[in-house]
Amino acid sequence: MRLTQINLAGFKSFVDPTHIPVPGQLVGIVGPNGCGKSNVIDAVRWVLGETSARHLRGETMQDVLFNGSGERKPVNRASVELIFDNSLGKAAGQWSKYGEISIKRVLERDGDSSYHINNIHVRRRDVADIFLGTGLGSRAYAIIEQGMISRVIEAKPEELRIFLEEAAGVSKYRERRRETELRLADTRSNLQRVNDILQELDKQLEHLRAQAEVARQYRDLQGALHTTQNCLWLLRKQEALAQRNRHAREVERLGLELEAGTARLRGAEKRIEELRAAHYAASDQVHAAQGTLYEANSEVARLEQQIEHVRDSRNRVTHQIAALRTRLEHGEGQLAAARAGLSEWRTEEEKAGVQTAACEARAAAERDKLPVAEEAYRATQTRRDELQRALAQAEQTVQVEQTRREHTEKLLQQLASRRERLEEERAGLAPPDAAEVDGLRAELDALEAGLAHKRDMSAHVERELPQIEQRLRERNAGLDEATQQLTGLEARRSALQQLQDRLARGEHIQGWLASRNLERAPRLWQGIAIEPGWEDALEAVLRERLNSVVLDRLERAASWFSDPPPGKITVFSPEEAASSGSAPWENLSPLQSYVTCGDSGVAAVLRDWLHGVYVVADSGTGFNLRSRLPAGGMLVTREGHLFSRHGVSFHAPDSEYHGVLSRQREIEHLGVEIGVAQQRLSVAREAVSVGEQEVERGKSELARLHAEVNELQERQHALQMQALRLTEQAQRAAERAEQIAAELEEVAAQNALETGQREAASATLDQVDIEVHQLQAQVELATDLYRRAETVLGLQRESLQQAEREHQEALFHLKTCSSKINEIENSINVFSETIGSLSRSMAELERELAGYDEAPPQEKLQQALVQRAEREQALKTARDALEEMESTLKQAEQERLACEQKLDPLRERIAELRLKEQEARLTEEQFAQQLAGADEHEIASLLEKGARPGALQAEINRLNDAITALGAVNLAALEELQNAEERRNYLDAQSRDLTEAMATLEDAIRRIDRETRERLQHTFDEVNRHFGTLFPALFGGGHARLVLTGEEILDSGVQAIAQPPGKKNTTIHLLSGGEKALTALALVFSMFQLNPAPFCLLDEVDAPLDDHNTERFCELVMKMSGHSQFLFISHNKITM
Predict the structure, then answer these.
(1) Which three-class secondary structure state does DSSP give residue 551?
(2) 3-state DSSP assignment of residue 3
(3) How far apart are CA 824 and CA 345, in angstroms?
(4) What average pLDDT does this structure show over 1082-1111?
(5) Average pLDDT over residues 468-484
(6) Is it the case that residue 26 has pLDDT exceeding 80?
(7) Strand ranges, E, within 217-312
(8) Local structure of 633: helix, strand or coil
(9) What confidence score (pLDDT) does residue 663 get?
(10) Please, what is the average pLDDT of the chain?
(11) DSSP string spanning 640-703?
(12) Do 868 and 293 meet the contact criterion of CB atoms below 8 Å apart?
């Protein structure tokens, strides 16, 4: 790719949209300090993904935004766009098909940053991927900022290795390896989590199998509990209904008593109302008397207040008259002083008038002289300006003609260079080979045929794969069914075995047995077997002896009588038993014939215990034969009923040993069934395994075909793009040839035109030079006359200004005198008016003082006091009558209160009964709600006659205790067990997939390391060789090399060793600044020779070089510009 243009807007100093074209392979950026040259380098680094503000010469990333100036406001958006020519299609990835690539970065003031490639929003990583391995990027060696060239060679070995990796093009491998390591770490973490889940799941499966059996017992007990609870609720409901009816009848009786008492209360209340009306009338009379008394009191207070007001007014008027007299005397003094000042200011006014007239005459004389001086000044100024304009126009004509001639000569040189370039380009145009195009088309046709065949094969596999997966699902269903059946059998056997183990341990006497080392001694039921159906018969005969402990010697029991066991227990010794057993009697078989035992000693004990016990087919036969039994004989039925000569014992399964033999037989039977289920499960697993392998093969085949199809499609796309490029190349070559011919004709015509213009400009320039010399002499003479007239005019203007200032001062003094006279006259008028006003006010106040007299109000006050005493006596009489009425009303209120107190107990009793009735109703509704949805008639039929709540509650408690004895019950155990097993199968498959993925990723990392190591070693050798060649060329001798600081090249640092001619320095740091810069350039250009970057940016790298080394640097850059595009910034004249 080749950089063709840089567009900036709002970036640092480029506030306005700026377009910087990059037309060739070697482009320089020059200008004064501070004009923004280095900002161009920062812009390129920024758009390539730089995220460090320090490397952009700022403190924060917001510093790249234009921050305003004295005339411009700050901007809120900065954008930089790089435009590349990709006509050769060398861009990486999907962008190779575009002839032109635009890479753009935009930053908003609020911090939002975005990247775009060809106006498509992309990630920062997508931009970095385009330049991976090309030497370009935010930290690459192809962008060397100001002052950075010496830091390249002084970099740490680890930092220098980064440049070597970029030159080797392994940065993309590093990125792929990092991504692979991240995926590998995620895979390992996922595998660890799966294994942890599997371990926890295995523990859950063990618990779930035991919980499933307990769940079935829990459901049965819950059903019985629900029925008993409904019976209790129905009985409670019936009791509440009866209680409610009883309380309702009692409320009705007490209500009649309450109505009679209420009638008596109403009569008392009526009498009270009549007395209260009379009380109100007496109260009104008291209020009326109080009103008249209040009026009399008000009149007395008003007259007293009027008298006090007259006294206050006389005092106030007296004080006001004294104050007015003082003010009148002061005003008369001010009036006399103002009249004296008026005569003085009138005399001063006459003097100011005479002086003003004299100043005005002098100013008029000076003003008449000014127009003559001004006219002379304007005439000399006009003449001078005309001559200066003529001279400036002539000089401008000279400059224009000179610029025109120089521009024409420059154009002629450019036209010559352009003609040479066009002829060279026309000679170098070469259209693509037609045979190559035909070969590409033939290859495309063959590739399309192969692609169609692969697509057909892929479609066939896609059709078959769902059928294979359906067969696998059916096999998995069979496997789940077999697993569920085996789990059920094992759970049943485990539950039965737990019951047998609990019975064998004898929990109530376990401590006693352990103290005598008998907790593991065998029990009788563990070593015998009986024919099916006769278990109850043997349990009825042996009872507790069925759980007898087998001892090696019975003498051990002799010492146990002092410390007997806490419960029933039987012990025996097989060695001491020696019985021949029972013979058949009345054609009845002895019970011992149904029992088998592997131990002969135990069998002898059984014969002794079962001696004289015979089996009968049914209870009727046993009852009929019992009278003929021999002494000590006994008959037993299948149900366990026992018949002796004198009695019958009915069997009931109330012993804790009931079912021990049937459970033992069932355990043995379940063992056989479990073996069969395990074989069936093994067959199902094998079938599922085969099915999974078939599905895996199908998926692998489908993935392989898809990969081949994708590979062929990519190859097809690549060939199509190559053919398109060849076609476009041929078209562009033809179009370019036509353009070159037209441009050559245009160059020839323009060359002739510019030659004529150059000759005309030279002739005009000679003629204008003569005119310039003549005008310069005339301008000097006119300037001298102008300066003399300017001096005369200045003197005349100063005289006029002095006369006008004196006239203005005299006029101002005259106006001041007039103003002062007017002010004094106004003051005299004000003082006269004030004195007259004060005199009038004093006369009015004296008349007002004569009008204040206290005698009339005093007479009215005495009359009002007499009237107030009369009204006080009337008020006392009315209050006495009101007190008598209040006493009568209070007595009537007490009688009413007594009637009302007799009614309160009745009301309270009625309220209490109503509460009880409401409580009974709520109780009835509560139990009715509990029975909602149940059939009460059916529940009533289940209730026994005379059933009591206590008995039902006791049964509920018993069922609850039985449920509690089960402990924690998992009702969803079966479903949870099935789900857990399905989950375990899924996790097993996931674990296998993760293990395979880990192996694949580790192999990928090893392959990446191998390829990276090979490329790095090759690059190191080549760069070292070029470095050793370029260094002597730049220095005119000496030698330089690169060395590795470690054994493993993948993580080893790189160190540069350089010794200029005549120096034996041991480190780079001993070199001068110029030598460091040349050494760094030799190293960077060595990398360029191996892996040329699309373009290189150099910012004043020639600053520390002297003239001789600068020339060497320029020659090297010009030589390398044939392979890479260089954009450099310089202040050096030799470089420019």
Answers:
(1) coil
(2) strand
(3) 9
(4) 78
(5) 79
(6) yes
(7) none
(8) coil
(9) 67
(10) 77
(11) --EE-SS-EE---S-STTTTHHHHHHHHHHHHHHHHHHHHHHHHHHHHHHHHHHHHHHHHHHHH
(12) yes
Across the range 119-140, mean pLDDT stands at 74
Q: In angstroms, what CA-CA distances link 619 with 172, 444, 586, 626, 650?
A: 96, 100, 16, 10, 10
Residue type, position 600, single letter = S
| Side-chain-side CA neighbours of residue 420 (13 Å) | 5
Q: What is residue 325's three-state secondary structure?
A: helix
**Does 104 have pLDDT greater than 90?**
yes
Cα 4 to Cα 19: distance, rounded to the nearest angstrom = 11
890-949 confidence digits (pLDDT tens): 887 787 777 777 777 877 778 788 777 777 777 777 777 777 777 777 777 767 665 677
CA distance linking residue 93 with residue 87, whole number of Å: 15
* Cα separation, 846 vs 780, whole angstroms: 98
In this model, does residue 846 exceed pLDDT 70?
A: yes
Q: How far apart are CA 7 and CA 47, in angstroms?
A: 11
Average pLDDT over residues 813-841: 79
218 by DSSP, 3-state: which?
Answer: helix
726 Cβ neighbours under 8 A, 6+ residues apart: 432, 436, 437, 440
Rounded distance between C-alpha atoms, residue 243 and residue 490, angstroms:
56
> What pLDDT does 79 receive?
92
Query: CA nearest 242: which of 816, 1077, 916?
Result: 916
Higher pLDDT, 866 or 525: 866
Where are the extended beta strands (E) located within 974-1108? 1039-1044, 1054-1059, 1095-1099
Q: Is the pLDDT of residue 577 over 50?
A: no
Residue 601: predicted pLDDT: 74
Q: What pLDDT sits at residue 1003?
A: 83
For the chain, the farthest-separated pair of C-alpha atoms sits apart, in whole angstroms, at 186
Q: 1073, 1134, 1131, 1060: which is closest to 1098 by C-alpha?
A: 1131
Sheet holding 1125-1129, edge to edge: 26-29, 1125-1129, 1095-1099, 143-144
Q: Residue written as tokens 């004289």?
A: 612
DSSP string, 893-937: HHHHHHHHHHHHHHHHHHHHHHHHHHHHHHHHHHHHHHTTTS-HH
Question: 158-167, 479-488, 645-654, 1025-1034: which has the highest mean pLDDT?
Answer: 1025-1034
β-sheet bridge partners, residue 3: 84
- DSSP classification of residue 1104: T
Q: How many CB atoms sit inside 10 A of residue 493's CB?
A: 19
User: How big is the chain, counted in residues?
Assistant: 1136
Segment 1009-1039, tens digit of pLDDT: 788 788 878 878 888 888 888 888 878 888 8
Q: What are the boundaries of each domain within the chain?
A: 506-663
* Cα 602 to Cα 437: distance, rounded to the nearest angstrom: 104
Asked whether residue 1117 carries a pLDDT value surpassing 90, the answer given is no
| Residue 268: CA count within 13 A, CB half-sphere | 17
d(CA 614, CA 622): 10
Name the residue among 218, 159, 725, 202 with its Cα closest to residue 440. 725
Q: Give the 3-state DSSP-derived string for 355-392, with helices as H, strands as E and coil as C.
A: HHHHHHHHHHHHHHHHHHHHHHHHHHHHHHHHHHHHHH
883's tokens: 């007190």
| Tokens of residue 641, six digits | 């009923």
Position 124 scores a pLDDT of: 82
| CB-based contact 462:688 (threshold 8 Å) | no
CA dihedral 1074, 1075, 1078, 1083 (to 10 degrees): -140
User: Rg (Cα) of the chain, in Å, rounded?
Assistant: 64
Number of Cβ atoms within 10 Å of the Cβ of 567: 11
Q: Could you give the C-alpha distances from 522 to 511, 569, 600, in angstroms and in order? A: 17, 13, 15
Write out the two tokens for 553: 């010697």
